[in-house]
Structure prediction request, 950 residues.
Amino acid sequence: MVKGLSHIVYIASSDELFQNTLEFYKAFGFKVLTAPNQAEKSEKSEENGKEAWLKMEANEHIMTSNITIRLLLNISCVPKNKPDSDQDWGLNESALALSVFDVATVKSQLDILGCSYQDRSIKSFSGTFQLIEIYCLDPLNNTIIFSNKPAFPSLLETPLTGPGSAEEAAENLGPKRKIGVLTSGGDAPGMNACVRAVVRYGISKGCEVYAVYEGYQGLVDNGIKKMDWKSVRGYLSVGGTTIGTARCMPFKTREGRLQAAENLIKSGIDSLIVCGGDGSLTGADVFRSEWSGLTSELLENERITEEEAQSYTSLTIVGLVGSIDNDMSSTDITIGAVTSLHRICESVDSIGTTALSHSRAFVIEVMGRHCGWLALAAGIATGADFVFIPERPPAGDDWKDTLCSVAERHRRLGKRKTVVIVAEGALDRNLDPIKAKDIKNILTDRLGLDTRVTTLGHTQRGGAPAAFDRILATIQSVAAVDAVLRSTPETPSPMIGMSNNQVTSGPLMKAVELTHEVAKAIGEKNFARAMELRDPQFAEEYLAYNATTILDDNSMLVPAHRRLRVGIINVGAPAGGMNAASRTAVRYALNRGHTPFAILNGFPGLAAGSIEELTWIGVDGWTSRGGSELGTTRAVPGEAVDMGMIAYQLQKFNIQSLLVVGGFEAFSSVINLEAARSKYPSLCIPIALISATVSNNVPGTDFSLGSDTALNAIVDSCDAIVQSARSSRRRVFVVEVQGGRSGYLAVEAGLASGASTIYIPEEGVNLSRLQSDSRHLMAMYMDDAADKSEGRIILRNETVSKTYTTDVISDILKDEGHALFDSRTAVLGHIQQGVNPSPMDRIRATRLAKCSIDFFEEHTSLALEKAFEDNEEAPISLTTIPESAAVVGVSGVDVTYRSVKELINVTDMKNRKPLDAWWMSHRPLVDLLSGRGLFTPEAQATLTRNQAEN
Ligand code: ADP
Prediction:
């Protein structure tokens, strides 16, 4: 059997039925095997004394291969009722589907056996009827469908010999790797996604994968279990770690590691993938470095044989960083941190409403003993008034004064709530801890604020992983398996990280050393070094947070002649993060001395002169709000809106910089505005576009605002759908997602929700694809335990095909599924915009909005300085260079400014998306991890080899 695809269990309630069933299947070519492992026999079958395994191999009559039936005798089992003969047996809840070359031969066989059956024929072009399917019942009243359609396309499509064949792939595989995977240290959401991806990708690469339960404790206690494809089903959506984690003192001793080495060797494991924090990864490296000493000692003490010592001369270690604190150096982000941030933001948002109602102050303590990432990111994402982190004590001699002046200023500006976020390891300049209760006392005593403390504690670890962590864990784990396969005894243990939105692999011990250096730098009061050792974005975000939140004290004002009137407009459909962008742009612009204006209801609003000044307090609370507070429409100037009116209103209100936040219509708008500059001087102002659309289809940025919120909304919906299906029946849901002509949402949500497959415009969909997918689904359902309902989902992009609509695809799958499964549709529609923007969208919005204001200053400085020197008024036309009409986006960790004129060359304007899509590299993983990879030549080779070995 292919690993992961096991067998079907049938239970006979009498000896006679047991024998008849055995004979029945033998008559169709099944061979009787001895039970594979007598020791594993359940008590029940022992009691009843009978068990038989029947296996079907492809032969000259049957196309289907590798079906195994486990037949048990259990007299207490209730026999299945025979379905009515006037009922269509093809619609029976479950069925065994067998593909045969000639259905007519089967019919004769059934006549000989005297079995009742139903048949289905179709009329051919010549007018004759052709028999295509037969539905019959075995002696236990299980339905069997004999059909002339191939059930396992890829098995058949894979040539048995020659190029690309299973045989060739088997030869290329080299010795089979046996990989152990363990999760260790503090649990982190996404660890399960790691285990799932290591198991499935490992199997697809011809490896055997073993789960080590309870972290290193499982190595010491031999808690090692071989995993198959199905062992990790449902793992993606579950937080924590299902295989367990523990702090293991024995592993810190040589004796413990000696025992661990013995257990690994006895299990045949040569590689370990460890997902944990710096402690766990240090432990792994220590283990590897003393491996040869451990094996020598085991040999000396005759705990392993000479042959075993020869076979296990080295141990491969690959590290994955699972840590909610994002505290590891050499990686931009760790598995679990983003989900934890989700939990924090949900809590702070909830606390915000009660704080607002009572005009209270809240001090919220979050995790992070040596790392302030969670506190800082949460501060940005929730618009907190102040944050305390370990790496950078507050400016000024006395943090209490600084805190009070900021909180008091914000109150004077009209705020009814004060929120302070403090990392549990926050320190002052003298390295004295800053504790939540100290902050509370200060706010109460000095400012008279009704202040409460909330310690979020373990809520931060819990809950379903965010889409980001599922994807991160999946792609990193795939890289970890690849690293195992590439490894040699000489290569240092790698740690899989993330840099610039790319998966990286670097020396594990170097990363651990750098991580320890942060704590050391803090201990030496070298705070600049501590910040430097974090990822580059961390320092930038810290500055951005201060510039937009703390420094509203007139300390950042630009000279009067450089101050601008900044217009902010939303275009296109609402997207999570639009309001956060407006809020930061307003607050930062005010801190710099500019005057921000809201342009209401998009370009039609601008044409109508709907412009009003925005105030500091007017945007309070916008960070966490979904939708568009400014109002948004799709109309594009120069198309649906008159360009002359736009130019007129910009001139009338003397708008000197324009921040456009929106999707592809916003991109088209900026192109048209830039092109019309030669006609209208008032358009000769800097124009920044922050992409905001769930579809993530605007060029010039890796991510658009709203796309992360949408992914989370889709993934949450898919989790609910799968749960419902699993509880009731075998059902496939065809879920329609947005994305326009871009498959981004379907690919990323497909990866994060474990979709069986996806249909995206980049690939299209046709009948043969649907046929192959229905066969794949049949294979999966046939492999499920007989008494299990399983929910599966397929994501279909809304524009993938006019013919194969969501309903049509669902109907085809249902029909082709031969009653093995049912199918339903779910059109998620505007639910995908989400309610509250995700933390990632809020943080991206904040960063890009601040950078946009900097961009405006840069592109107006020349003209304004010249006018100032010449003692003249600021000109209407401030800039004409194409670079001053740009998409302000993210590329990896950097903020980039790319002119729309340049971006047209890399854009498919007709299909409204960039020509290049970085996320397409994730596409093959969706199918592979859902099981289609089982049928690749390599997997076939593994299958061939396993069969030979067994
Ligand atoms: P984290 O991985 O989250 O940093 P810990 O520091 O608690 O968590 O480490 C988890 C486990 O890793 C420990 O319980 C121990 O078994 C193992 N470990 C940590 N440091 C070492 C070490 N220096 N040598 C051997 N094992 C270690």
